[in-house]
């Protein structure tokens, strides 16, 4: 069976989409493993692949210099470096290792969207805002793609490269703070990978609505912290994977008040009549974890999906577990090692969901509160269709 007949990935061009017709990507995650042929060559654990030349050359291409800033008196803890501005707001490090990890994430999204930088139907924008830009890779690509647009990118840490397109500038800012941008200012606002970082998503969405021009688009991309596997997988109901996802979800709910489950709330929040948005669309994609699929495209996606977890896990949990759950440094390191072993087990055949939601600010006088469109139902998997 051709996996694309089940996954129904949109065959995008090598450039971001402008005004062409939209096609929702749909998937039933229960049927997904049966729809992807497994490459038996990868049934055994392959440790050496974790350090191949692909990663080194890919990292080397990003550069490492940071912009000058007054907020570089960083917090050093358990061998990692963290932001100092609004200390403790964000759980992940801002060191070189985590910057390298963000390169993997950017590459994964480009693979997933077939080199498209966005799915919202924008064209000839004047101003774009990227909230929580990290190392700024998406903002840099957008500045190159739209040289006539003014791109603003914000983050808690000044860890972006020095050599930037002239139409791009970075600002030190906290996404939880009150916006200082004028109303009706941006043609597009972009957010990616902010799960576990936002105190009030309705408030942030509301501020985005105000800052957008009438007809402007908000696009929000997130990943699930939960992995999935078929019942025949060695990782099905794995205790380490379950311990991670449940601990992270509980930390967000009971400790920080900043949910790690926003992927399942995005569509519902934006589609509510009182959100102020219209034309709410959702696409859900699957990232294989490990190069277990037979299909070359999915195999490549899975290779980077594995690195996403193996390279990201320590940064995700070190501060949260030691600061909030009382773990020691050695306990976290042991957990990370065991976790990586499960992720790299080829017989695990794991995958995870990622999701893109985009919504438009209505034009003046346009009715608000109409039925929103979604490929994934409102905020979850209910209503997903399977392409026969």
TrEMBL record:
Residue ranges, annotated region (Disordered): 1-37, 369-388
Organism: Didymella heteroderae
Chain segments annotated as coiled-coil in the UniProt record: none
Single GO MF annotation: methyltransferase activity
Protein name: S-adenosyl-L-methionine-dependent methyltransferase
Pfam families on file: Methyltransf_23
Top-rank taxon, per record: Eukaryota
Compositionally biased spans, kind Basic residues: 1-11
InterPro entries per the UniProt record, alphabetical: SAM-dependent_MTases_sf
């Amino acid at each position: 069976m051709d996996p694309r007949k089940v996954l129904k990935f949109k065959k995008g061009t090598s450039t971001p989409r402008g005004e062409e017709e939209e096609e929702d990507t749909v998937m039933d995650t229960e049927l997904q493993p049966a729809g992807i042929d497994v490459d038996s060559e990868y049934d055994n654990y392959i440790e050496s692949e974790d350090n191949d030349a692909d990663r080194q050359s890919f990292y080397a291409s990003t550069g490492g210099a940071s912009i000058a800033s007054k907020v570089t008196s960083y917090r050093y803890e358990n061998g990692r470096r963290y932001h100092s501005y609004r200390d403790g707001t964000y759980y992940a490090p801002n060191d070189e290792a985590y910057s390298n990890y963000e390169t993997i994430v950017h590459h994964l999204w480009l693979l997933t969207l077939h080199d498209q930088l966005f799915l919202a139907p924008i064209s000839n924008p004047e101003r774009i805002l990227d909230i929580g830009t990290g190392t700024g890779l998406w903002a840099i690509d957008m500045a190159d793609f739209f040289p006539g647009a003014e791109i603003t990118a914000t983050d808690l840490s000044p860890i972006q490269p020095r050599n930037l397109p002239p139409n791009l500038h970075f600002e030190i800012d906290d996404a939880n703070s009150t916006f200082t941008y004028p109303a009706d200012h941006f043609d597009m606002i972009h957010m990616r990978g902010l799960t576990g970082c936002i105190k009030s998503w309705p408030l942030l969405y509301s501020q985005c609505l105000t800052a957008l021009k009438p007809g402007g688009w908000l696009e929000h991309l997130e990943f699930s912290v939960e992995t999935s596997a078929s019942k025949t997988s060695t990782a099905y109901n794995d205790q380490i994977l379950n311990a991670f996802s449940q601990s992270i979800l509980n930390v967000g709910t009971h400790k920080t008040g900043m949910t790690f489950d926003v992927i399942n709330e995005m569509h519902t929040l934006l589609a509510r009549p009182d959100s102020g948005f219209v034309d709410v669309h959702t696409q859900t994609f699957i990232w294989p974890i490990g190069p277990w699929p037979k299909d070359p495209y999915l195999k490549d996606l899975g290779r980077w999906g594995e690195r996403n977890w193996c390279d990201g896990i320590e940064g995700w949990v070190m501060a949260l577990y030691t600061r909030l759950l009382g773990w020691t440094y050695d306990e976290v390191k042991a957990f990370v090692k065991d976790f990586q072993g499960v992720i790299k087990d080829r017989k695990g055949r794991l995958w995870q969901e990622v999701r893109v939601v985009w919504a438009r600010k209505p034009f003046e006088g346009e009715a608000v509160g109409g039925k929103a469109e979604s490929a994934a139902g409102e905020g979850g998997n209910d209503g997903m269709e399977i392409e026969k």
